[in-house]
Amino acid sequence: MKTVQSKKVDALEAIYDRRAVREYTGVHPSRETIQELLEAAVQAPSAMDLQPWEFVIVQDAALLKRISDRSKKLSLHHMKPGSGLSLFRRELEDPKTDIFHGAGTAIIIVAKPGEWPAIEDCCLAAQNLMLAAHAMGLATCPIGFAREALQEPSFQKELGIGEHHLPAMAIAVGYAKSRPKGPPRKPPHVVAWR
User: Fold this and answer.
1) HEC profile for the chain?
2) Is residue 11 part of a domain?
3) Domain count of the chain?
4) Window from 44-48, 89-93, 120-124, 174-178 with minimum mean pLDDT
5) In a domain, 194, yes or no
6) pLDDT for 124 beyond 70
7) pLDDT tens profile 129-155
8) For residue 3, is pLDDT > 60?
9) CB-based contacts of 97-100 (< 8 A; 24+ apart in sequence)
10) Domain of 32?
11) What count of Cα atoms within 13 Å lies in the side-chain half-sphere of residue 53?
12) Residue 121 lies inside a defined structural domain of this protein
């Protein structure tokens, strides 16, 4: 496997160092780089080895803006006062806010329909993709705000997502303007060890 940068990263180092980046240069990763990320994503485990994922790559600036604008509108509409998400109200009301943080590339992982729920498997693929991106010197951010808009039939049709497919995770991918330090993590809370 080729990598964008010849940066060797230990798996544990990648897990501890990777952060959600919310400030990008706007430079697109190459097609070859994105293909490498997808190859890493599909190495994820899946129930019964069904590999129930598909991918949509969005780099069209106008389309990303429309998805962002619709996502903000839907999030504000469903936001309950006092909920944890209400902390983002002012940011979501700002017309300049881009939920993709200027990354210029979004990779949407889509769950194929089937008898076994595929969302969890798609989330495993997302984690692989984000860790691979980190190892390659790229930055990522999972974009939960996009999920509802991406599930609308009009966007699904425009993006070529099948009728019974479910957009599981959108990930902003690009080159970081700055990398945040991670917040301290709470220690694991073990409720039982028998």
Assistant:
1) CCCCCCCCCCHHHHHHHCCECCCECCCCCCHHHHHHHHHHHCCCCCHHHCCCEEEEEECCHHHHHHHHHHHHHHHHHHCCCCCHHHHHHHHHHCCCCCCCCCCCCEEEEEECCCCCCCHHHHHHHHHHHHHHHHHCCCEEEECHHHHHHHCCHHHHHHCCCCCCCEEEEEEEEECECCCCCCCCCCCCCCCCCC
2) no
3) 1
4) 89-93
5) no
6) yes
7) 999 999 999 999 999 999 999 999 999
8) no
9) 97/68, 97/72, 98/64, 98/65, 98/68, 99/67, 99/68, 99/71, 99/72, 99/143, 99/145, 99/146, 100/64, 100/67, 100/68, 100/141, 100/143, 100/146, 100/172
10) 21-79+91-174
11) 30
12) yes
Predicted TM-score of the model (pTM):
0.91
Tokens of 16: 């501890």
d(CA 93, CA 69): 10
Locate 155 and state its tokens: 């966007």
Q: State what percent of residues in the chain have pLDDT above 90.
A: 74
Residue reference for tokens 């790559």: 57
Per-residue pLDDT, 6: 43
CATH of the domain at 127: 3.40.109.10
Return the pLDDT at 9: 77
Domain assignment of residue 180, yes or no? no
pLDDT digits (tens, 9 = 90+) for 150-175: 999 999 999 999 989 999 999 999 99
